[in-house]
Specification:
Oligomer: single chain
Number of domains: 2
Shape: elongated
Largest sheet: 7 strands, mixed
Number of strands: 13
Strand order of the largest sheet: 4-5-6-13-8-11-10
Number of helices: 2
Helix content: 10-25%
Amino acid sequence: MITVPETAQLLHENGIKIDWIIAGTKYKPIQRDIKVMPAGNDTPAEAALKYLVTHGYPAVNVVTDDLQLKDYLFFTDKINLVIFNEGRKIYAIKPGFSKWKPAGDTIEVLTHPNELHVGGLEPIGHHRFKTTQDGFFSLRFDQPNLFIAELL
């Protein structure tokens, strides 16, 4: 588990083992076996992802209250990245993406390509779609990837 000081105490109180805390070098961890990782000029998310990618981790789940997609863009092709934020599961997809979902599920497109073509979806709001039936939906677009969100 990698976290920031603001979350460390809550995790510790709930019995969740912390491996790393992203903080300044003067930060004193709440447990002896916790390592401190300085973020330097990076955001905490960028510092953690750089560490994971550098050390060969294939995937990461990120839980955050403060979603800044720009912090994750560089890493979309380097690590399998899933972000949990405000009751949503967020991940990057490539052009030609398709997935099976039951009818009525909501999909939100969080980054907005110039050309977006959807199949099996109907618009229900600003960059939000609902699956029209049980089965596959598809997204085609004109950039290397984009982030979508599914409601949990």
